[in-house]
Specification:
alpha+beta, Glutathione S-transferase Yfyf (Class Pi), Chain A, domain 2, three-stranded antiparallel beta sheet, 26 helices, flat, disordered N terminus, mechanosensitive monoatomic ion channel activity, Mechanosensitive ion channel
Length: 816
């Protein structure tokens, strides 16, 4: 109960500790020219005595300010490229009008939307860059204006007090310099605002075009059961006149040009991704070295070894392509397709061995499906051509299903992996969708045809890619667990297995959720779903003076959960000397202290960010913090003293987890050092919770702080007939002959004293603490056996009792 009580208050104590630490170091010495935050920001003149020092400081400040307000190269680049980019947008707008008039299918609209998304991202990035510079200059402007007024007052004061001309000239120069800087900042900010306004006008136009295209997708023309074309036997085989007009930007050369422009526009993102790719390769190399350094025979490691060690390059490339697909959002279609093909090709070797031999060749069919889908992007089909192309694609799907699953019922009886069983169970559904696509295509319901074929083809592509993601994620997890535990001399295999199973379940759940989201995106249902959910989450609810939304509550919970998950991960990796900080060769206990500090900081800032996500003004907690401090002073003295004692134990390190300690007649092994109490496991099997103040204030014996060796002393006596010199030699021999006795310091046999009935000796030797009792027992038995063999007597106290006749007893005898 006590533990749960303190766990509730632990985050608040942590916040107070971290904030006190941060605020303590934030009290730096400031120059005289400051803005008083407790009063109105009224500039005041500088005292004549301080003028010279402040002149020097302000002169240096002017140099720094000139550096801060220097023209930003990124804005200069935006300004120079904007006129040509504006012309390109106007051309895209005209082409888009022609494109819309051609009544394109949903996929063509998605392709055009992707191009507009790229333009929107570029304009947003440009606008944000300019806005950031304006905000930075505005902050500098406030500071410069304040300093200008201060020096103006100082200059006027110097004139009144008849300060030497040389000083007044310097004061005038500083004032003029600050005034010139202020005018320069105002001019540049106006120029930046003008450029931002032009960009915003274009951004508004782009957003309108995006909304228009999204609205088209929601129109009745694109409903699934809308009769988009006449039946196939009534289809006209005449060529369209609009083909050449609207396909100029949809060819591979056109997309290649767009890709080159994309690379030029987002050049910094490309460089950053190369750094990410290098880190990915180094990470997989690190995992591979873990198998080479710690080779353990274990069936659970076979798949991980195969993926991480044997397929190290392929797995690294797969991770790079996958991250690139997520990193370059709204990339040009050609570049995006290259990333998809790269991800698919590199995923096939990862998933190949996990598939049943009957289904291993399905990976090549999946590549074919992806190519057939990509051709729709770069080839502008006439209506009749497109419909025959869809029929061909549907027959390919049916033929592939028949080839891999015939005979179906016998195939289901094979010893298959879970993924193969999942594919087999979906076979009737895919047959049904393929037949629906053929029938709907013949009748003219081509919207239904498109969506059913997408589910069949792109669904299979997505499934094989996410199956590879699942295998790779599990392999990475097992490799990390293997490397973490393999370097430990002793660990609990059951604990490791339990952690692995729990994390694998989490991976399965996360991969399934991601697969569902990507699948919804393929069939164009993700945006409607997210809009629906966003509308529900943004609904506000008022509780007194606080207004909350479900989204803010979920954000609060997510930040808290993520913070605690991160702290758990850090504790798992860094807490012991064999963890992630092993390469630093830190003293014992230091990794745990570093881990504790990092975890407290993460928890503190996590709670602050979580409260901020609720829209709560943290300034309102000042009163509560004062009340909490008062409550701590009166009601929680013991809790806080134990908390401080816990910090002392962590940083001073008088005891560490794994040490054998003795305190208050309690002896055991330290299992955990908490912030309020520590857990000591006794040798009788009991776990004792010891308040930290007891460990700090009481006499504490740590048997294993500096080392884990212990001196054992055996007391023994022999009869006065024995030779003391021989006894000393025999005792030393018995100690040296014991295999676990440490040779340095050497065993020592000593003559103690002349006892009442024996000659007393002491035998002292050193052993590892863990076997102290066993060593004492074994050496004692060896001494007994040796003495018995040589006939050396081990005496025991003897006493002769003489009974004298008492006078009364003698008188009784005489009377008889």
């Amino acid at each position: 109960m006590t533990r749960n009580y303190f766990s509730f208050f632990k985050p608040f104590f942590t916040i107070l500790f971290v904030f006190g630490f941060v605020f303590g170091f934030s009290q730096n010495k400031e120059p005289i020219i400051t803005k008083d935050s407790t009063k109105t920001n009224v500039p005041t003149k500088i005292h004549v005595v301080d003028v010279i020092d402040q002149l020097e400081l302000t002169t240096n400040d002017i140099k720094e300010i000139n550096k801060k307000i220097a023209p930003d190269p990124s804005i200069s680049k935006i300004d120079s490229l904007f006129p040509s980019y504006q012309k390109q947008l106007n051309i895209k707008l005209r082409n888009s009008e022609y494109f819309i008039s051609a009544n394109p299918n949903r996929q063509k609209i998605n392709n055009l939307l992707n191009k507009w998304y790229i333009s929107r991202d570029y304009l947003k990035d440009s606008e944000n860059t300019i806005n950031d510079v304006i905000l930075k200059n505005s902050k500098v402007l406030i500071d410069v204006s304040f300093k200008e007024k201060v020096w103006q007052l100082t200059y006027e004061n110097a004139i009144e007090k008849d300060v030497p001309r040389e000083i007044t000239d310097r004061l005038n120069k500083v004032t003029n310099d600050l005034h010139d800087i202020k005018l320069l900042i105002v001019k540049r900010n106006n120029d930046y605002l003008l450029l931002e306004s032009k960009i915003n006008i274009q951004l508004t136009s782009v957003n309108n075009q995006i909304q228009r295209l999204q609205g088209m997708k929601s129109s009745q023309v694109y409903d699934l059961l809308y009769l988009r074309h006449p039946p196939i036997w009534k289809t006209s085989f005449k060529k369209s006149n609009t083909k050449n007009t609207i396909t100029e930007g949809d060819t591979i050369p056109g997309d290649f040009k767009s890709t080159v422009e994309f690379f030029k526009t987002f050049e910094n993102k490309i460089y950053l991704f190369f750094i990410i790719a290098v880190c990915i390769f180094l990470f997989f190399r690190y995992l591979k070295n873990g198998f080479e350094l710690h080779d353990i025979k274990n069936e659970n490691l076979d798949i991980s070894k195969d993926i991480i060690s044997k397929k190290y390059v392929i797995t690294s490339l797969f991770a790079c392509f996958l991250i690139a697909k997520l990193y370059f959002i709204n990339a040009p279609i050609l570049f995006d397709n290259i990333l998809v093909i790269g991800t698919l090709i590199t995923s096939l070797p990862i998933a190949y061995n996990s598939l049943n031999k009957k289904f291993q060749n399905i990976v090549y069919v999946i590549i074919l499906f992806n190519i057939l889908e990509m051709l729709k992007t770069y080839v502008w089909f006439e209506t009749y051509q497109y419909r025959f192309y869809l029929l061909f694609e549907a027959f390919i799907v049916i033929a592939s299903l028949y080839y891999f699953t015939h005979p179906y019922f016998q195939t289901r009886k094979l010893n298959l992996s879970k993924f193969s069983v999942f594919i087999i169970k979906l076979t009737p559904i895919i047959y049904f969708l393929a037949i629906v696509s053929i029938v709907s295509n013949i009748l003219g319901y081509t919207n239904l045809t498109d969506i059913t074929l997408k589910i069949c083809t792109q669904g299979s592509v997505l499934s094989i890619m996410f199956y590879a993601i699942l295998l790779a994620s599990k392999a990475i997890l097992i490799a990390m667990m293997h490397r973490h535990y393999a370097r430990k001399p002793v660990y609990s295999f059951q604990k490791r297995e339990a952690i692995e199973k729990k994390l694998i379940k989490v991976i399965h759940f996360v991969v399934l959720i991601l697969w569902v989201l990507f699948f919804l995106n393929i069939i164009d249902q993700l945006n409607p779903l997210t809009n629906l959910i966003d509308g529900a989450l943004s609904e506000s609810y008022t509780f007194g003076t606080i207004t909350l939304t479900i989204a803010s509550l979920l954000s609060f919970l997510s930040i808290i959960i993520i913070s605690f998950l991160i702290t758990s991960f850090i504790s798992f990796i860094f807490d012991d000397g064999q963890g992630g900080l092993k390469f630093l060769n830190l003293p014992k206990g230091v990794p745990a202290a570093i881990s504790l500090v990092i975890r407290y900081i993460i928890i503190a800032f996590g709670i602050v960010f979580a409260l901020s996500s609720l829209g709560i003004d943290l300034g309102k907690f000042n009163l509560m913090a004062g009340a909490l401090g008062l409550g701590i002073g009166f009601g929680l003295q013991n809790v806080i003293s134990n908390f401080v004692a816990g910090l002392i134990l962590v940083f001073e390190r008088p005891i560490l987890p794994g040490d054998t300690v003795e305190v208050n007649n309690l002896m055991g092994i330290v299992k955990k050092i908490g912030v309020r109490s520590s857990k000591v496991s006794t040798f009788d099997g009991a776990d004792v919770i010891v308040p930290n103040t007891n460990l700090i204030s009481n006499d504490l014996i740590n048997w294993t702080l500096s080392d884990n060796i212990k001196r054992v002393e055996i007391l023994i006596g022999t009869s006065y007939d024995s030779d003391p010199n021989q006894i000393l030699e025999l005792l030393t021999e018995c100690a040296n002959s014991y295999i676990n006795v440490i040779k340095e310091p050497i065993p020592v046999a000593l003559f103690s004293d002349f006892g009442d009935s024996s000659l007393n000796f002491k035998l002292r030797f050193w052993v590892h603490f863990e076997i102290g009792l066993q060593a004492k027992s074994d050496v004692s038995i060896a001494i007994y056996n040796k003495f018995k063999e040589l006939g050396i007597e081990i005496p025991f106290p003897q006493q002769d009792v003489h009974i004298k006749d008492l006078p009364e007893r003698k008188k009784d005898i005489d009377l008889q």
